[in-house]
Protein backbone atom coordinates (compact mmCIF):
# COMPACT_ATOMS: atom_id res chain seq x y z
CA UNK A 1 0.00 0.00 0.00
CA UNK A 2 2.80 2.44 0.91
CA UNK A 3 5.60 0.81 -1.05
CA UNK A 4 5.96 3.86 -3.32
CA UNK A 5 6.16 6.41 -0.49
CA UNK A 6 9.78 7.47 -0.08
CA UNK A 7 9.36 8.55 3.56
CA UNK A 8 9.04 4.88 4.61
CA UNK A 9 11.29 3.38 1.91
CA UNK A 10 14.88 3.76 0.83
CA UNK A 11 16.98 2.27 -1.98
CA UNK A 12 18.33 -0.43 0.34
CA UNK A 13 14.97 -1.37 1.93
CA UNK A 14 12.37 -0.74 -0.80
CA UNK A 15 9.94 -3.57 -1.55
CA UNK A 16 9.73 -2.55 -5.22
CA UNK A 17 13.47 -2.99 -5.64
CA UNK A 18 13.29 -6.23 -3.69
CA UNK A 19 10.65 -7.61 -6.07
CA UNK A 20 12.83 -6.77 -9.05
CA UNK A 21 15.79 -8.53 -7.48
CA UNK A 22 13.67 -11.59 -6.68
CA UNK A 23 12.33 -11.64 -10.25
CA UNK A 24 15.87 -11.72 -11.62
CA UNK A 25 16.85 -14.38 -9.10
CA UNK A 26 13.89 -16.61 -9.97
CA UNK A 27 14.77 -16.40 -13.66
CA UNK A 28 18.42 -17.31 -13.26
CA UNK A 29 19.73 -13.75 -13.64
CA UNK A 30 21.95 -11.99 -11.16
CA UNK A 31 19.71 -9.81 -8.94
CA UNK A 32 22.33 -7.07 -9.12
CA UNK A 33 22.45 -6.90 -12.91
CA UNK A 34 20.34 -3.76 -13.23
CA UNK A 35 21.96 -1.77 -10.39
CA UNK A 36 18.53 -1.48 -8.79
CA UNK A 37 18.56 -4.07 -6.02
CA UNK A 38 20.85 -3.29 -3.08
CA UNK A 39 19.70 -5.99 -0.66
CA UNK A 40 22.44 -8.38 0.55
CA UNK A 41 22.37 -11.91 -0.94
CA UNK A 42 21.47 -13.87 2.20
CA UNK A 43 18.47 -11.62 2.80
CA UNK A 44 17.39 -12.07 -0.81
CA UNK A 45 17.50 -15.86 -0.57
CA UNK A 46 15.57 -15.77 2.72
CA UNK A 47 12.83 -13.58 1.29
CA UNK A 48 12.74 -15.70 -1.86
CA UNK A 49 11.78 -18.71 0.25
CA UNK A 50 9.08 -16.68 2.02
CA UNK A 51 7.61 -15.51 -1.28
CA UNK A 52 7.35 -19.11 -2.43
CA UNK A 53 5.45 -20.13 0.71
CA UNK A 54 2.68 -17.54 0.53
CA UNK A 55 2.12 -13.97 -0.72
CA UNK A 56 1.38 -13.02 2.91
CA UNK A 57 4.50 -14.68 4.30
CA UNK A 58 6.60 -11.58 3.70
CA UNK A 59 4.13 -9.39 5.60
CA UNK A 60 3.90 -11.89 8.44
CA UNK A 61 7.69 -12.00 8.61
CA UNK A 62 7.88 -8.22 8.99
CA UNK A 63 5.15 -8.20 11.65
CA UNK A 64 7.00 -10.85 13.63
CA UNK A 65 10.18 -8.76 13.38
CA UNK A 66 8.37 -5.76 14.86
CA UNK A 67 6.94 -7.87 17.69
CA UNK A 68 10.36 -9.33 18.55
CA UNK A 69 11.94 -5.87 18.43
CA UNK A 70 9.28 -4.55 20.81
CA UNK A 71 9.93 -7.44 23.21
CA UNK A 72 13.66 -6.76 23.07
CA UNK A 73 13.06 -3.09 23.83
CA UNK A 74 11.00 -4.12 26.83
CA UNK A 75 13.82 -6.38 28.00
CA UNK A 76 16.30 -3.55 27.52
CA UNK A 77 14.16 -1.30 29.73
CA UNK A 78 14.06 -4.04 32.39
CA UNK A 79 17.86 -4.34 32.30
CA UNK A 80 18.20 -0.58 32.65
CA UNK A 81 15.87 -0.50 35.66
CA UNK A 82 18.07 -3.14 37.30
CA UNK A 83 21.12 -1.02 36.52
CA UNK A 84 19.44 1.97 38.16
CA UNK A 85 18.90 -0.07 41.30
CA UNK A 86 22.54 -1.09 41.22
CA UNK A 87 23.54 2.58 40.89
CA UNK A 88 21.85 3.19 44.25
CA UNK A 89 20.56 6.37 45.77
CA UNK A 90 23.02 8.88 44.18
CA UNK A 91 21.59 8.34 40.69
CA UNK A 92 18.01 8.26 41.97
CA UNK A 93 18.55 11.50 43.90
CA UNK A 94 20.27 13.12 40.92
CA UNK A 95 17.27 12.41 38.67
CA UNK A 96 14.60 13.65 41.09
CA UNK A 97 14.88 17.46 41.38
CA UNK A 98 12.20 18.17 38.79
CA UNK A 99 9.82 15.73 40.46
CA UNK A 100 10.30 17.33 43.84
CA UNK A 101 9.40 20.76 42.48
CA UNK A 102 5.80 19.81 41.64
CA UNK A 103 2.80 20.37 43.88
CA UNK A 104 2.15 16.68 44.44
CA UNK A 105 4.26 14.67 46.87
CA UNK A 106 7.50 13.47 45.32
CA UNK A 107 6.76 9.78 45.92
CA UNK A 108 3.36 9.94 44.21
CA UNK A 109 4.69 11.81 41.17
CA UNK A 110 7.65 9.46 40.76
CA UNK A 111 5.44 6.38 40.93
CA UNK A 112 3.06 7.85 38.35
CA UNK A 113 5.89 8.53 35.92
CA UNK A 114 7.35 5.06 36.44
CA UNK A 115 3.95 3.53 35.72
CA UNK A 116 3.76 5.39 32.39
CA UNK A 117 7.39 4.78 31.40
CA UNK A 118 7.30 1.10 32.30
CA UNK A 119 9.24 -1.46 30.23
CA UNK A 120 5.99 -2.60 28.60
CA UNK A 121 5.25 0.98 27.56
CA UNK A 122 8.63 1.24 25.81
CA UNK A 123 7.95 -1.88 23.75
CA UNK A 124 4.38 -0.87 22.93
CA UNK A 125 5.50 2.62 21.94
CA UNK A 126 7.67 1.11 19.23
CA UNK A 127 5.24 -1.63 18.18
CA UNK A 128 2.20 0.67 17.86
CA UNK A 129 4.06 3.70 16.58
CA UNK A 130 2.48 4.94 13.31
CA UNK A 131 5.93 5.23 11.73
CA UNK A 132 6.71 1.60 12.54
CA UNK A 133 3.31 0.44 11.30
CA UNK A 134 3.71 2.44 8.08
CA UNK A 135 7.09 0.84 7.42
CA UNK A 136 5.56 -2.60 7.94
CA UNK A 137 2.61 -1.83 5.65
CA UNK A 138 5.06 -0.63 2.98
CA UNK A 139 6.75 -4.08 3.22
CA UNK A 140 10.08 -2.37 3.84
CA UNK A 141 12.83 -4.43 5.44
CA UNK A 142 14.00 -1.37 7.36
CA UNK A 143 12.73 -2.81 10.64
CA UNK A 144 15.04 -5.80 10.22
CA UNK A 145 17.91 -3.40 10.87
CA UNK A 146 16.17 -2.21 14.04
CA UNK A 147 15.88 -5.79 15.25
CA UNK A 148 19.62 -6.38 15.17
CA UNK A 149 20.43 -2.95 16.62
CA UNK A 150 18.31 -3.68 19.69
CA UNK A 151 19.41 -7.33 19.84
CA UNK A 152 23.06 -6.25 20.05
CA UNK A 153 22.35 -3.95 22.99
CA UNK A 154 20.18 -6.46 24.86
CA UNK A 155 22.78 -9.20 24.39
CA UNK A 156 25.44 -6.86 25.76
CA UNK A 157 23.19 -5.99 28.71
CA UNK A 158 22.94 -9.71 29.45
CA UNK A 159 26.74 -10.03 29.43
CA UNK A 160 26.78 -12.03 26.18
CA UNK A 161 29.58 -10.26 24.34
CA UNK A 162 29.78 -12.86 21.56
CA UNK A 163 26.08 -12.59 20.74
CA UNK A 164 26.27 -8.82 20.84
CA UNK A 165 29.23 -8.80 18.44
CA UNK A 166 27.38 -11.18 16.11
CA UNK A 167 24.34 -8.87 16.19
CA UNK A 168 26.48 -5.88 15.24
CA UNK A 169 28.04 -7.91 12.41
CA UNK A 170 24.58 -8.71 11.01
CA UNK A 171 23.66 -5.03 11.41
CA UNK A 172 26.71 -4.09 9.35
CA UNK A 173 25.64 -6.67 6.78
CA UNK A 174 22.16 -5.21 6.28
CA UNK A 175 23.14 -1.57 6.93
CA UNK A 176 26.77 -0.82 6.02
CA UNK A 177 29.11 1.24 8.24
CA UNK A 178 26.86 3.26 10.60
CA UNK A 179 26.18 0.36 13.05
CA UNK A 180 29.90 0.57 13.87
CA UNK A 181 28.80 3.26 16.35
CA UNK A 182 27.47 0.43 18.53
CA UNK A 183 30.80 -1.38 18.89
CA UNK A 184 32.29 0.65 21.75
CA UNK A 185 29.11 1.10 23.87
CA UNK A 186 28.11 -2.55 23.48
CA UNK A 187 31.63 -3.69 24.35
CA UNK A 188 31.58 -1.46 27.43
CA UNK A 189 28.13 -2.70 28.46
CA UNK A 190 29.04 -6.37 27.96
CA UNK A 191 32.31 -5.93 29.87
CA UNK A 192 30.53 -4.20 32.72
CA UNK A 193 27.79 -6.82 33.00
CA UNK A 194 30.20 -9.72 32.78
CA UNK A 195 33.14 -8.60 34.87
CA UNK A 196 32.15 -5.63 37.05
CA UNK A 197 31.33 -6.33 40.69
CA UNK A 198 28.11 -4.98 42.07
CA UNK A 199 29.76 -3.82 45.30
CA UNK A 200 32.22 -1.53 43.47
CA UNK A 201 31.20 2.10 43.11
CA UNK A 202 32.13 3.06 39.56
CA UNK A 203 32.50 6.84 39.76
CA UNK A 204 35.33 9.00 38.57
CA UNK A 205 36.23 9.86 42.13
CA UNK A 206 36.69 6.19 42.99
CA UNK A 207 38.79 5.60 39.86
CA UNK A 208 40.98 8.57 40.75
CA UNK A 209 41.47 7.32 44.30
CA UNK A 210 42.29 3.79 43.15
CA UNK A 211 44.62 5.05 40.41
CA UNK A 212 42.68 3.28 37.63
CA UNK A 213 42.79 6.01 35.00
CA UNK A 214 42.59 3.49 32.13
CA UNK A 215 41.15 0.01 32.52
CA UNK A 216 43.56 -2.21 30.59
CA UNK A 217 41.18 -5.16 30.83
CA UNK A 218 38.44 -3.19 29.13
CA UNK A 219 40.80 -2.07 26.35
CA UNK A 220 41.78 -5.68 25.64
CA UNK A 221 38.15 -6.78 25.79
CA UNK A 222 37.13 -4.02 23.34
CA UNK A 223 39.81 -5.07 20.87
CA UNK A 224 38.69 -8.70 21.08
CA UNK A 225 35.07 -7.60 20.73
CA UNK A 226 35.91 -5.66 17.56
CA UNK A 227 37.78 -8.63 16.14
CA UNK A 228 34.76 -10.86 16.75
CA UNK A 229 32.57 -8.33 14.91
CA UNK A 230 34.96 -8.31 11.95
CA UNK A 231 35.21 -12.10 11.97
CA UNK A 232 31.45 -12.58 12.02
CA UNK A 233 31.05 -10.02 9.25
CA UNK A 234 33.68 -11.85 7.21
CA UNK A 235 31.76 -15.10 7.70
CA UNK A 236 28.61 -13.43 6.37
CA UNK A 237 30.50 -12.20 3.33
CA UNK A 238 31.89 -15.69 2.77
CA UNK A 239 28.42 -17.21 3.00
CA UNK A 240 27.16 -14.60 0.53
CA UNK A 241 29.98 -15.42 -1.86
CA UNK A 242 29.09 -19.10 -1.68
CA UNK A 243 25.39 -18.35 -2.21
CA UNK A 244 26.20 -16.27 -5.30
CA UNK A 245 28.39 -19.07 -6.73
CA UNK A 246 31.55 -17.00 -6.52
CA UNK A 247 30.21 -13.83 -8.16
CA UNK A 248 31.49 -10.63 -6.58
CA UNK A 249 28.87 -8.33 -8.05
CA UNK A 250 26.97 -8.26 -4.76
CA UNK A 251 29.87 -6.46 -3.07
CA UNK A 252 29.49 -3.56 -5.47
CA UNK A 253 25.70 -3.41 -5.32
CA UNK A 254 24.99 -4.14 -1.65
CA UNK A 255 27.97 -2.50 0.05
CA UNK A 256 30.25 -0.31 -2.06
CA UNK A 257 27.45 1.52 -3.87
CA UNK A 258 25.74 2.21 -0.55
CA UNK A 259 28.94 3.54 1.00
CA UNK A 260 29.70 5.67 -2.06
CA UNK A 261 26.07 6.95 -2.14
CA UNK A 262 25.68 6.39 -5.87
CA UNK A 263 21.92 5.99 -5.72
CA UNK A 264 20.56 9.53 -5.24
CA UNK A 265 16.91 8.57 -4.89
CA UNK A 266 15.19 11.14 -2.62
CA UNK A 267 14.58 10.04 0.96
CA UNK A 268 14.16 11.55 4.43
CA UNK A 269 17.90 12.16 4.74
CA UNK A 270 19.93 14.97 3.20
CA UNK A 271 22.74 13.05 1.50
CA UNK A 272 20.84 12.69 -1.78
CA UNK A 273 20.38 16.44 -2.27
CA UNK A 274 23.88 17.35 -1.20
CA UNK A 275 25.53 14.93 -3.62
CA UNK A 276 23.29 16.06 -6.46
CA UNK A 277 24.68 19.57 -6.04
CA UNK A 278 28.35 18.80 -5.27
CA UNK A 279 30.95 19.00 -8.03
CA UNK A 280 32.01 15.59 -9.29
CA UNK A 281 35.70 16.15 -8.58
CA UNK A 282 34.87 16.69 -4.89
CA UNK A 283 32.38 13.83 -4.69
CA UNK A 284 34.54 11.24 -2.93
CA UNK A 285 36.08 13.86 -0.65
CA UNK A 286 32.66 14.65 0.79
CA UNK A 287 31.70 10.96 0.88
CA UNK A 288 34.77 10.33 3.02
CA UNK A 289 34.01 13.33 5.24
CA UNK A 290 30.37 12.33 5.77
CA UNK A 291 31.29 8.75 6.67
CA UNK A 292 34.47 9.41 8.65
CA UNK A 293 33.10 12.03 11.01
CA UNK A 294 30.77 9.53 12.73
CA UNK A 295 33.82 7.62 13.98
CA UNK A 296 34.84 10.58 16.17
CA UNK A 297 31.77 10.41 18.43
CA UNK A 298 32.06 7.06 20.30
CA UNK A 299 35.25 7.76 22.28
CA UNK A 300 34.26 11.24 23.61
CA UNK A 301 30.81 9.93 24.53
CA UNK A 302 32.39 7.02 26.33
CA UNK A 303 34.74 9.28 28.27
CA UNK A 304 32.02 11.72 29.30
CA UNK A 305 29.10 9.34 29.73
CA UNK A 306 29.46 5.70 28.73
CA UNK A 307 32.28 4.86 31.12
CA UNK A 308 30.19 5.57 34.22
CA UNK A 309 28.76 2.24 35.24
CA UNK A 310 26.18 0.94 35.67
CA UNK A 311 23.85 3.40 33.85
CA UNK A 312 26.32 5.14 31.54
CA UNK A 313 26.79 2.35 28.96
CA UNK A 314 23.01 2.06 28.52
CA UNK A 315 22.75 5.78 27.80
CA UNK A 316 25.66 5.57 25.36
CA UNK A 317 23.96 2.69 23.50
CA UNK A 318 20.72 4.66 23.16
CA UNK A 319 22.68 7.68 21.93
CA UNK A 320 24.40 5.47 19.35
CA UNK A 321 21.00 4.31 18.06
CA UNK A 322 20.00 7.96 17.63
CA UNK A 323 23.21 8.80 15.78
CA UNK A 324 22.68 5.85 13.44
CA UNK A 325 19.21 7.20 12.60
CA UNK A 326 20.65 10.66 11.89
CA UNK A 327 23.79 9.72 9.96
CA UNK A 328 22.58 6.84 7.79
CA UNK A 329 22.94 7.56 4.05
CA UNK A 330 19.45 6.17 3.40
CA UNK A 331 17.22 6.75 6.45
CA UNK A 332 13.45 6.36 6.71
CA UNK A 333 10.81 7.72 9.06
CA UNK A 334 10.75 4.51 11.10
CA UNK A 335 14.33 5.19 12.23
CA UNK A 336 13.00 8.03 14.37
CA UNK A 337 10.48 5.68 15.97
CA UNK A 338 13.39 3.51 17.14
CA UNK A 339 15.39 6.54 18.26
CA UNK A 340 12.59 7.85 20.49
CA UNK A 341 11.87 4.34 21.80
CA UNK A 342 15.52 3.98 22.82
CA UNK A 343 15.34 7.36 24.56
CA UNK A 344 12.27 6.25 26.51
CA UNK A 345 14.34 3.51 28.14
CA UNK A 346 16.04 6.28 30.16
CA UNK A 347 12.88 8.14 31.16
CA UNK A 348 14.66 10.32 33.72
CA UNK A 349 16.71 11.93 30.94
CA UNK A 350 13.51 13.00 29.20
CA UNK A 351 12.28 14.49 32.47
CA UNK A 352 15.57 16.33 32.83
CA UNK A 353 15.32 17.77 29.29
CA UNK A 354 11.55 18.26 29.24
CA UNK A 355 11.87 22.02 28.75
CA UNK A 356 13.00 21.54 25.13
CA UNK A 357 12.47 17.85 24.39
CA UNK A 358 8.77 18.07 23.48
CA UNK A 359 9.31 21.13 21.29
CA UNK A 360 12.24 19.59 19.41
CA UNK A 361 10.44 16.27 18.94
CA UNK A 362 7.42 18.17 17.60
CA UNK A 363 9.72 19.70 14.99
CA UNK A 364 10.76 16.22 13.87
CA UNK A 365 7.13 15.10 13.62
CA UNK A 366 6.18 18.25 11.71
CA UNK A 367 8.94 17.71 9.16
CA UNK A 368 8.02 14.05 8.66
CA UNK A 369 4.33 14.90 8.28
CA UNK A 370 5.15 17.47 5.59
CA UNK A 371 7.34 15.12 3.53
CA UNK A 372 4.39 13.48 1.65
CA UNK A 373 3.03 16.91 0.76
CA UNK A 374 6.36 18.11 -0.57
CA UNK A 375 6.79 14.90 -2.57
CA UNK A 376 3.32 15.33 -4.10
CA UNK A 377 4.04 18.97 -5.01
CA UNK A 378 7.41 18.17 -6.55
CA UNK A 379 7.06 14.71 -8.11
CA UNK A 380 3.28 14.38 -8.35
CA UNK A 381 2.04 17.72 -9.66
CA UNK A 382 5.42 18.96 -10.95
CA UNK A 383 4.65 22.32 -9.35
CA UNK A 384 7.91 22.64 -7.40
CA UNK A 385 11.49 21.47 -7.31
CA UNK A 386 13.82 19.42 -5.15
CA UNK A 387 14.20 22.27 -2.66
CA UNK A 388 10.64 21.66 -1.44
CA UNK A 389 11.49 18.18 -0.20
CA UNK A 390 15.00 19.10 0.88
CA UNK A 391 13.72 21.86 3.16
CA UNK A 392 11.52 19.38 5.04
CA UNK A 393 14.28 16.78 5.31
CA UNK A 394 16.53 19.53 6.64
CA UNK A 395 13.91 20.36 9.28
CA UNK A 396 13.71 16.68 10.25
CA UNK A 397 17.47 16.26 10.57
CA UNK A 398 18.12 19.56 12.36
CA UNK A 399 15.38 18.99 14.93
CA UNK A 400 16.40 15.34 15.27
CA UNK A 401 20.00 16.34 15.96
CA UNK A 402 18.91 18.93 18.52
CA UNK A 403 16.62 16.39 20.20
CA UNK A 404 19.44 13.89 20.56
CA UNK A 405 21.88 16.59 21.71
CA UNK A 406 19.50 17.83 24.41
CA UNK A 407 18.90 14.26 25.57
CA UNK A 408 22.62 13.49 25.81
CA UNK A 409 23.25 16.78 27.59
CA UNK A 410 20.59 15.83 30.15
CA UNK A 411 22.45 12.56 30.76
CA UNK A 412 25.69 14.44 31.37
CA UNK A 413 23.98 16.79 33.82
CA UNK A 414 22.58 13.87 35.78
CA UNK A 415 25.96 12.15 35.77
CA UNK A 416 27.67 15.24 37.23
CA UNK A 417 24.94 15.60 39.83
CA UNK A 418 25.32 11.94 40.75
CA UNK A 419 29.06 12.34 41.19
CA UNK A 420 28.70 15.37 43.42
CA UNK A 421 26.08 13.71 45.60
CA UNK A 422 28.24 10.60 45.99
CA UNK A 423 31.30 12.70 46.76
CA UNK A 424 29.62 14.83 49.42
CA UNK A 425 28.08 11.76 51.02
CA UNK A 426 31.55 10.30 51.38
CA UNK A 427 32.80 13.58 52.79
CA UNK A 428 30.00 13.72 55.35
CA UNK A 429 30.56 10.13 56.44
CA UNK A 430 34.33 10.55 56.68
CA UNK A 431 33.96 13.80 58.62
CA UNK A 432 31.48 12.19 60.97
CA UNK A 433 33.97 9.43 61.65
CA UNK A 434 36.90 11.81 62.11
CA UNK A 435 35.04 14.23 64.39
CA UNK A 436 34.85 11.57 67.04
CA UNK A 437 38.56 10.80 66.71
CA UNK A 438 40.22 14.16 65.91
CA UNK A 439 38.03 17.30 65.56
CA UNK A 440 40.95 19.52 64.45
CA UNK A 441 41.87 17.30 61.48
CA UNK A 442 38.22 17.12 60.44
CA UNK A 443 38.02 20.93 60.19
CA UNK A 444 41.07 21.03 57.90
CA UNK A 445 39.64 18.33 55.61
CA UNK A 446 36.24 20.05 55.42
CA UNK A 447 37.91 23.19 54.02
CA UNK A 448 39.25 21.32 50.94
CA UNK A 449 37.32 21.97 47.67
CA UNK A 450 35.44 19.21 45.89
CA UNK A 451 37.12 17.77 42.76
CA UNK A 452 35.71 18.38 39.30
CA UNK A 453 33.65 15.53 37.87
CA UNK A 454 35.55 15.65 34.56
CA UNK A 455 39.14 15.42 35.79
CA UNK A 456 39.44 11.63 35.57
CA UNK A 457 38.46 8.85 33.21
CA UNK A 458 37.03 5.50 34.17
Automatic annotation (TrEMBL):
Membrane topology: Multi-pass membrane protein
Biological processes annotated in GO: attachment of GPI anchor to protein; GPI anchor biosynthetic process
Superkingdom, natural source: Eukaryota
Keywords: Endoplasmic reticulum, GPI-anchor biosynthesis, Membrane, Transmembrane, Transmembrane helix
Any one annotated GO CC term: GPI-anchor transamidase complex
Transmembrane segments: 120-139, 146-163, 169-192, 213-241, 253-275, 282-299, 305-327, 356-376, 388-408
Localization annotation: Endoplasmic reticulum membrane
Pathway(s) where this gene product acts: Glycolipid biosynthesis; glycosylphosphatidylinositol-anchor biosynthesis
Entry's family note: Belongs to the PIGU family.
The protein's name in its UniProt record: PIGU protein
Gene of this entry: PIGU
Amino acid sequence: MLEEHLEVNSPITSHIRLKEGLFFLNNGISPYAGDTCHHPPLLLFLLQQLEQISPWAHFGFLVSIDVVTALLLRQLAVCYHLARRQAGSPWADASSPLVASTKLPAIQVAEGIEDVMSPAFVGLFYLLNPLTVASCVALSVQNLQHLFFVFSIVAAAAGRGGLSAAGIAVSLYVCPLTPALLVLPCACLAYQQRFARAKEECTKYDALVKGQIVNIGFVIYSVCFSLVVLGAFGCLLGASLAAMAGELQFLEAAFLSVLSIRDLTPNTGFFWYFFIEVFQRYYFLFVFAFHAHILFYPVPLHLRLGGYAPTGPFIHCSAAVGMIALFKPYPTASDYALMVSAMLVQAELIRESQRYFAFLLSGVMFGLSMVPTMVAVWLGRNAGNANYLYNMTLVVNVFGSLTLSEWVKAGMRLRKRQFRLAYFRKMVLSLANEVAADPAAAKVKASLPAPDADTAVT
